[in-house]
Amino acid sequence: MASVLLSVNQVSKSYGARKAVDGVSFQVQQGQTVGLIGPNGAGKSTTVGMVCGLLRSDSGGIVMDGEAIGQGPSEAKRKIGFVPQDLALYEDLSSLENLKLFGALYGLKGALLKQRCEQALALVNLADRAHDKPSTYSGGMKRRLNIAAALLHDPQLLILDEPTVGVDPQSRNAIFDTLEALKAQGRSLIYTSHYMEEVERLADHIVIIDHGKVLADETPAALYRRLPAQAALRAELSAAPSAARVSA
Ligand code: ADP
């Protein structure tokens, strides 16, 4: 049985009087992809912000690979890579220079930094554009570069906050290909989206959140079984069935 990598336990957070996240709990197993689904304003970004340690929860706890996520740097936080909604790239630097900068912030240097940058660019399929500036990239390519930046420190868990918002279908597929490659490497993923169809291809487990609360936490198959039937099966018989068979 897979072991638990991340455990989010009864986490809550308010902004002033507004309760953005209200007692959210879910888990991510080793190697699992969890789709965190909900409409705009449901509390997805706030939840993943707390998981990464970027936001402080008001109550509850988050445990990553056996260690509590708290304030300040920690080994647990280094095991997480975060791809935020807002692109955080330096437009005046080439892609490779951007990655070297991000890698250096994680304390990487020398041959290891170079190797990680090359691996990450290859994974997101941008190796041939490494020396171009992100300003010459499409929106989807910038997103993929952002994914590469979040992978440099070799995190066990990659969290992507709505990575396909505003990108064309072809780029969306390229992002999915990258995420499938990461899955095949055995990494765990949390993928937030407001579209169920978005996560169908990737997610092993789906957590639906609205108004800051978890409404469902199950496999896609179990979730579909709970939906009302949307299609009827119509069969035509080539000959009248015998009375015995109809009653069987
Ligand atoms: P989602 O990612 O699902 O769209 P968010 O976590 O961004 O949801 O937001 C949840 C709720 O918290 C929303 O009502 C949003 O308006 C509010 N909210 C988010 N960030 C802030 C903030 N920095 N200050 C005040 N309210 C916020």
TrEMBL record:
<keyword id="KW-0547">Nucleotide-binding</keyword>
<keyword id="KW-1003">Cell membrane</keyword>
<protein>
    <submittedName>
        <fullName>ATP-binding cassette domain-containing protein</fullName>
    </submittedName>
</protein>
<dbReference type="GO" id="GO:0005524">
    <property type="term" value="F:ATP binding"/>
</dbReference>
<dbReference type="GO" id="GO:0016887">
    <property type="term" value="F:ATP hydrolysis activity"/>
</dbReference>
<dbReference type="InterPro" id="IPR017871">
    <property type="entry name" value="ABC_transporter-like_CS"/>
</dbReference>
<feature type="domain" description="ABC transporter">
    <location>
        <begin position="6"/>
        <end position="236"/>
    </location>
</feature>
<keyword id="KW-0472">Membrane</keyword>
<keyword id="KW-0067">ATP-binding</keyword>
<dbReference type="Pfam" id="PF00005">
    <property type="entry name" value="ABC_tran"/>
</dbReference>
<dbReference type="InterPro" id="IPR027417">
    <property type="entry name" value="P-loop_NTPase"/>
</dbReference>
<dbReference type="InterPro" id="IPR003593">
    <property type="entry name" value="AAA+_ATPase"/>
</dbReference>
<dbReference type="InterPro" id="IPR003439">
    <property type="entry name" value="ABC_transporter-like_ATP-bd"/>
</dbReference>
